[in-house]
Structures
1.
Amino acid sequence: MLDHEQVVIRTGRRSRLPVIVAVHSTVLGPAAGGLRLWHYPDWRDGLDDALRLSAAMTSKFAVAGLPSGGGKAVVALPEGMVLDADRRREVLHDVADVIVALGGTYATGPDVGTGPDDMASIGDITPHVFCRPAHLGGSGDSSPHTAQGTLAALRAVSRRLYGTSSLAGRTLSVVGLGRVGAALARLLAAEGAALTVTDVDPGKRKVCDEVGAVWLSPDKILAAEVDIVVPAALGSVLDEPTVRGLRCRAVAGPANNQLATPDVADLLHQRGVIWVPDYVASAGGVIHAISAELHRLPAAEARARVDAIEDTVTDLLRTAESRGQTPAQAADELARRRLRAAPGPTGP
Ligand code: PHE
């Protein structure tokens, strides 16, 4: 059964590339979610990604307590395709056409492979776009806020494990040093945490040196003996073999779709590893963008909403423990309850 309200798949008029927009739910409000501009072996893999990521956005907003629905856009680039500036603008304008056709049901934002300048290009055609650069009236890059929100989630984990929200002296592995991972590594280093890091791009060793971290290869880092593993790259890193190899006490990070399959959450629980659902730990970016741009909150308040992820995670871990559930079950239940309490889909 299709779980989504609407999925648009269109060959871009200008780029001839497959543009996919999945609107999972507008029950809580108009849908929002980033645009992923990424390489896939087949465009259908991009469709799978859009379906899963948009559903996660619905849960992300529900647990964050925001009146928005879940959506996601994917442009599936063939492997090896490099876009020059003109071609890139064409792709972004093709995405914008689909957003226009959705009539306000979906607004986009940055995600893997896109940033504020791309949002500016989309803004040439439609106002339904978050995170344009500040000089164009947007709230700018969301990644520092996603990193800040993940830090808040990590504080809650630390409080649960060690009775203090301070991360000073804790050991953490940051898996992926993209815009969010690098920002988070810097925040953690500033807190006095001892870091192990990796990235598929060896060029990221610069960030490693800058934060005084130890570099481990991507295939070794999940099994490193640390307090907390922080997935900060592409999804599906947690599957049966990697979870069996974990030597940490918790996993919490900003990557979307960390579990290869939902039952991996149970395996983590059985192994005594606390897993904070990705859609809870990664919500800082959207919380900030939507608070600032849609709800027009002053900067300090938007920031406080991001920091409130600490309380959300603290409550979730407490609820899960008292009910004998996994944090994933507790978060899913909370999301479902909030969706059930809402009146119904938002019209265009
Ligand atoms: N990439 C963000 C996420 O997955 C999406 C986003 C950020 C959407 C900011 C809107 C504004 O949560």
2.
Amino acid sequence: MTARRLLLVNGPNLNMLGTRQPEIYGSTTLAQIEQRVAELAAESGFEVRAVQSNHEGALVDAIQAARQDCVGIIINPAAYSHTSVAIRDALSAAELPVVEVHLSNIHTREAFRHHSYVSAVAEVVIAGAGPAGYEYAVRYLAERKS
Ligand code: DQA
């Protein structure tokens, strides 16, 4: 099935955006990010399914489901970026273009954030652009030749 739908996945603690360490993550809420992504995607004829979970298995389930009815995945795996082989394997199995987004530049932060298990299975990695990173991700997937 080739529905023009994107999966937007946000991992643990990103439900706290807006109040969580605003000096690092800014003051934009997750609801505002999800709304902006949906609006921008709609301009290019895409629907968006937005999922946020603090639970690794729920994120794996959402990624597995995307294989059925999505054409691309935008994911901020948050702390699971640095720990989760399960999320990486789910993304590989989905066989969809993946854009990995981080609000902060993980490479200028603590050493344990410098490695992401997800990056090797992402077509594009965007880090440090704040909420605009999600917009760049939508633009990339909308303009990508499938
Ligand atoms: C993050 C960076 C991660 O290291 C961190 O665990 C997060 C958010 C980001 O968007 O900058 O929760 O993915």
3.
Amino acid sequence: MTQLGTTANPLRVAVIGAGPSGFYAADHLLKQKALAVEVDLFDRLPTPYGLVRGGVAPDHQKIKSVTKVYDKIAADPRFRFYGNVEFGRDVTRADLSQFYHAIIYATGAQTDRRMNIPGEDLPGSHPATEFVAWYNAHPDYRDLTFDLTQEAVAVVGMGNVAMDVIRILARTPEELATTDIADYALEALRHSRVKRIYMLGRRGPAQAAFTNPEIKELGELEDAEVIVPPADIQLDPLSEAFLAAGADKAAVRNVEILREYAIHPPQGKTRQIITRFLVSPVEIIGTERVEAIKVVKNELVQSDDGSLRPRATGETEIIPVGLVFRSVGYSGVALPDVPFDARQGVIPNLQGRILAEVNGSPAAGNYVVGWIKRGPSGIIGTNKPDSVETVDRLLDDLHAGALMQPATPSRAAVEKLLALRQPNIITYADWQCLDQIESQRGAALGRPRLKFSRIDDMLAALRNQKEPAGD
Ligand code: NAP
């Protein structure tokens, strides 16, 4: 057999999941000069880009321009996209091992972490992940409903996802109308009666997970203002000492911004974003639906590792709210026939090499990148070095002869099987056609794009494009 990775016997890699980490893995493989390689990228949706399309907030359009980089990667003739193909349903791990020397899982963190408190599943209590997917036109979430007739809302958690949710709830319809927010979400938010948004953090201002631009942006909204109660910004001695050490500049700046909000006179805007630090929800109260959230006041104590963690004091408060968004982090979902560490919500791995079990031995030829590898942290760019690390281990294994040995390592063979399993495969050219249609629909309304939110509509739009109605 000719050597693997040569023109006569190219290395064939399947990547599952077309988000940033999947694209960066493909990119690093395609950049290997001495390597003949073919990369096939699968996604269960017809649309690529993962959270760049389905997660990044619609009012953060600039961040989405990173997709140009992904389009460049996809333009390489050694790259193929198989959209609308679901791993585990249309194609299994056993199937792929017949066609590829290696599989890289890049499926992200598709669900929410739970708070495990009474009332969490009452109507009106939602994971932020679902709200985000809904306003971003994700086909699986587009039919959800959120009761925006409620005047008071609690958003639990102080990360950047919480900031996104708060902004989308607090912006005016006019501000949202220039974004690519889903059309039905724009319509629902147009009729929103939300007036007070409580932003609940279990630790203090110096430990908030949001970044400086995100907390600053809340103060720049057209018809919403941030209210930081003065007592909320009083730091405890441990936090004071932490900030004085000066190691965490972002935390120092976060506190400065919050202090500016605290002394700002009220502006009389329609919507108020009210901070509550050092509180943990202990119950979501309601009979038929959410009526209030009960929180316990926390104090900060030092852990053995030096970090400051919250400890409940026993003093509680009930905040009347009609809607709760739980924004306490994402979690990975197990894939069929792929090892999974349910405690951490990730695929067990060592530098991206999948382990048959936690602390077990590597599963040859199987790799992982992105949030399903390391957990839901970091910005889009964090995925680049993360994917490079994994692909470098894959290349080490290539040189050590430790990859899979597929029976039919050919594109024709995989496409033959896919044609039997999924009649509506979306190619990258198909996606680019959809992309253009969405952009044109948006341009007509002065918006960056008007997204399709149903897979059937995407397929119909493509059919119309390919077979224009005759006269
Ligand atoms: P995150 O940054 O990890 O924030 C999670 C928040 O939930 C923290 O405030 C955390 O508090 C809190 N929390 C966790 N468990 C809790 C519990 N049981 N009760 C109360 N609060 C709890 O997660 P994320 O906001 O989902 O964001 C995920 C990643 O995406 C982050 O790296 C984020 O920066 C990134 N992202 C970036 C952008 C952007 O750049 N604009 C936008 C969206 C997301 P503790 O700190 O006390 O644990």
4.
Amino acid sequence: MFKKILIANRGEIAVRVIRACREMGISPVAVYSDVDRAALHVRKADEAYHIGPATASESYLNIPKLIEVARKSGAEAVHPGYGFLSENPSFNRACRQAGIKFIGPTPEAMELMGSKTRARQTMEKAGVPFVPGTTKGLDSLAHAREVAAKIGYPVMLKAAGGGGGKGMRAVRSADQLASALEQAKSEAMRSFKDDEVYIEKLIENPRHIEVQILGDEHGHLVYLGERECSVQRRHQKVLEESPSAFVDPDMRRRMGETAVRVGKAAAYSNAGTVEFLVDERKNFYFLEVNARLQVEHPVTEFVTGLDLVHLQIRIAAGEELPVRQEDIMLRGHAIECRIYAEDPDNNYFPSPGTITRLLQPSGPGIRRDSGVYEGWTVPIDYDPLLAKVIGYAPTRREAIARLDRAMYEYFAGGIKTNISLFRRILRDPDFIAGKVHTGYLDGLLERSKNEQHAARDGDRRIAAVAAVLFTQMENGTAAAPAETAQPAAGVSANGAAGTHWKRAARMDALREH
Ligand code: MV4
């Protein structure tokens, strides 16, 4: 087993991996950039090395620097976390060449999953269902027209080189195809320096459901249930849960077995996630593989009772999986909220700054994976994820209640956060009923915006009428109270009695509007 592991990451995931190292008697080595010198993960490590300026390309993405620190510190392995170099085959290879174990899949498996079209070709061979369409890039507009006509509109154009919705265009009729193809290609070229675009049948309002797989280096591969990740905003996950309220036991088994087939087809080892699009009729289609540990791994840890980071490290050290598929039972329900330093009143833009006050939730069934502390200055340079709060309980309804309670315990002063968003989601009837899909959150935010506008317009109307009435009362030309209002007791119908009573009657009338 390793004696020392370098965590080539920062924030909450670095803290999370450091905790697993400590529990396993492994010494954790941290790295930090200029703005992270006082970061929580640095404080919790045994040793920490400066790797460069805040800009990620000069620090957390600096492969030679990270290899140098691994060598200098004597770390035998590197945990990449997620983001940064976690899915970078060159970093994976550089570790291998330096004799340092990369805690994750092989570079070959990583590369196979990196290209969407290569992954789809692999899936086709493995008999894995994916959305009807092309597995290779489109040669021309004529080719696009031919394929679109065959699969039928609406169709989705997608960039082969990347995910996250970049270069993606929905095309609802043939006359839109030419311009959409042009836009998709140019955006793909801008985003991925590769203008290869392919085409699929469009799935309306799909759910994003992913399956956790775990493989050792001896050919054993299991699935650990699924995660519902449909609550997203602009392709950024906001809330995830396991199990999915939409998946029944038979579907879970079929999705899991499909995910294992995907893993086997790629000779996958360590932790990975197979993403699916799921339509309203419970058909699921392969989307992509994430060759890394994911942000939302805690919800799987809760319902399976397994520690995924422990298992990642043990697999990288050459151990066999300690569980077989028949040993894996799902129990209870877990929901994760991603707490971001974002301003809900400013389009959820990042809201960095110093945390002047921090009250974080705890108590029964609440796990908090945090990368911050009171007094810490959230830098602008990285993803503004502050912490994840995970609620666990025997049932989904109890997990929601726990998390709702926890969101009312959470307070961060000095910065804006998206905590208010979770208070809304966790109390939303559609969410409580499990009626979510990838457009759910946009719909909720749109409804909330309209409600806020209506409330504001209502307030404006009342203010305008009150202003007019006040002016009239001031110069004595005010009309009798509106016919719908009953004059307050003691005031005759024509309002002749004291003005005070008249005003009171009018204000009542106003409030009733
Ligand atoms: C789709 C789709 C509908 N039909 N493909 C978005 C990013 C990339 N991961 C795949 N995505 C989608 N592909 C077809 N054929 C809808 C989406 C999609 C989506 C998928 C997963 C999670 C969030 C999403 C948000 C918008 C659109």
